[in-house]
Structures are given as structure tokens and as C-alpha cells.
Specification:
The protein has a single domain (12-156), classed as Alpha-Beta Complex (Peptide Deformylase). It is built from three helices and five strands. The chain has helices at 26-41, 134-147, 158-180, and strands at 46-48, 58-61, 80-98, 108-121, 127-132. The chain has a five-stranded antiparallel β-sheet with strand order 1-2-3-4-5, sandwiched between helices. A hairpin with a 5-residue loop joins β4 (108-121) and β5 (127-132). Bound molecules: ligand GNR and nickel (II) ion.
Length: 181
């Protein structure tokens, strides 16, 4: 197992479109293990391969970590790895305060589908179907966005995007200044 480096905005690699995995082999399973380790270390509830510099359609989520009070059958508590994930059904609307390991220090409310059905392959290459609502639904949509090169800030209004970028640039300048002393 190994910890991977998480890329942060405005790294251009986060804007790239990821490609399908055509063979689920040991190399892919090793990447999934490393992604889980990296996600838990960073205390995230999800992670997409492009966030660690791999432009392949692979996501991991574990929404049982902090949302233990929720107990619907559609909010899986166990860790999930999905290869080539696709949203096949979506229903309703939900607003959720989102954050992203690639956009540290910034959160904002985003509107997404309330319920989704996601299909894909598991770590053995077997087809799986996940029905989700609540945080798991939001998280799956957030991770699948990463595979398209889309960050949650890209889903905000123009004005909020400008404010977010201003805040993030300022944060980066301060960090650079702190490193210099
Ligand atoms: O850790 C994370 N928390 C989170 C909270 C609300 C909506 C989405 C997320 S995903 C994020 C981890 C991450 O950046 N995944 O890509
Ligand atoms: Ni993210």
C-alpha cells in the first residue's frame, strides 16, 4: 500500500477527461487499495483516480465514516470501489454543502440529483448496480464529475465561482509566503 499525492486546484490535470478501464487487473486493484489508503489518510469520504494523477475511470467512496446517524438502505456504509461508473437513473433535487480534497479550505452548497442509480464494475470486474440517496448519492455524483474533469466549484454560479477562485488564490499566496519565511 502507498499514500498517493492529491492534486489541487488549479492543476490542469484535474480538468482532463478520464478514460475507461478495459481490463480490471492487479495493477488496477493496487491503485484502488492505494486510493482507499489515501482517502482515509486525508479524511475524505470519496476519491477519484484523476485526483491522484491517474486519468482512469475509477472512484472509491466510504460514506459510513462520518454520517453514522443516517440509516437508509440507500446510504451504503461499506467502502465502495466502482470502475467505469455511470449514472443510469436520477431523480429529484438535493442541495448539499460540498467540499473537495482537491479544493482544500473551501466549501459551498451545490444542487444535484437527490437519488441516483450508478452502474459499473467492482474490483473483480463484475457488473454492479448501486442505488443511492443522501451523502452517498451526492458523493457518487461528485466523484463521477471528477472523471469528466469537473470540480464542484464548476457547478456554482459565475459570481460564486469568481469568489471561490479569489479565496483560493489568496490562500495559495499565503501558503507560499509562509513557506518563504
Ligand atoms: O471528503 C469529501 N467530502 C465531501 C462532502 C460533500 C460532498 C462531496 C464530498 S467528496 C470529498 C472528497 C473528494 O474530494 N472527493 O473527490
Ligand atoms: Ni472531490
Amino acid at each position: 500500500m502507498a499514500l498517493l499525492e492529491i492534486l489541487t486546484w488549479p492543476d490542469k490535470r484535474l480538468a482532463a477527461k478520464s478514460t475507461n478501464v478495459d481490463q480490471v487487473d492487479d495493477e488496477i486493484r493496487k491503485l484502488i487499495d492505494d486510493m482507499f489508503e489515501t482517502m482515509y489518510f486525508a479524511e475524505g469520504v470519496g476519491l477519484a483516480a484523476p485526483q491522484v494523477g491517474v486519468t482512469k475511470r475509477i472512484i472509491v467512496v466510504d460514506c459510513g465514516v462520518r454520517e453514522s446517524e443516517e440509516s437508509s438502505p440507500l446510504t451504503a456504509k461499506e467502502p465502495l470501489a466502482i470502475i467505469n461508473p455511470e449514472v443510469t437513473i436520477q431523480d429529484g433535487k438535493i442541495a448539499w454543502e460540498e467540499g473537495c480534497l482537491s479544493v482544500p479550505g473551501y466549501t459551498e452548497e451545490v444542487e444535484r440529483s437527490a437519488k441516483v442509480t450508478v452502474t459499473g464494475l467492482d474490483r473483480e470486474g463484475k457488473p454492479i448496480t448501486i442505488e443511492a440517496e443522501g451523502l452517498l448519492s451526492v458523493c457518487l455524483q461528485h466523484e463521477i464529475d471528477h472523471l469528466e474533469g469537473v470540480l464542484f466549484v464548476d457547478r456554482l454560479s459565475r459570481l460564486k465561482q469568481e469568489m471561490a477562485k479569489k479565496k483560493l488564490r489568496k490562500q495559495m499566496e499565503e501558503e507560499a509566503r509562509d513557506r518563504a519565511v
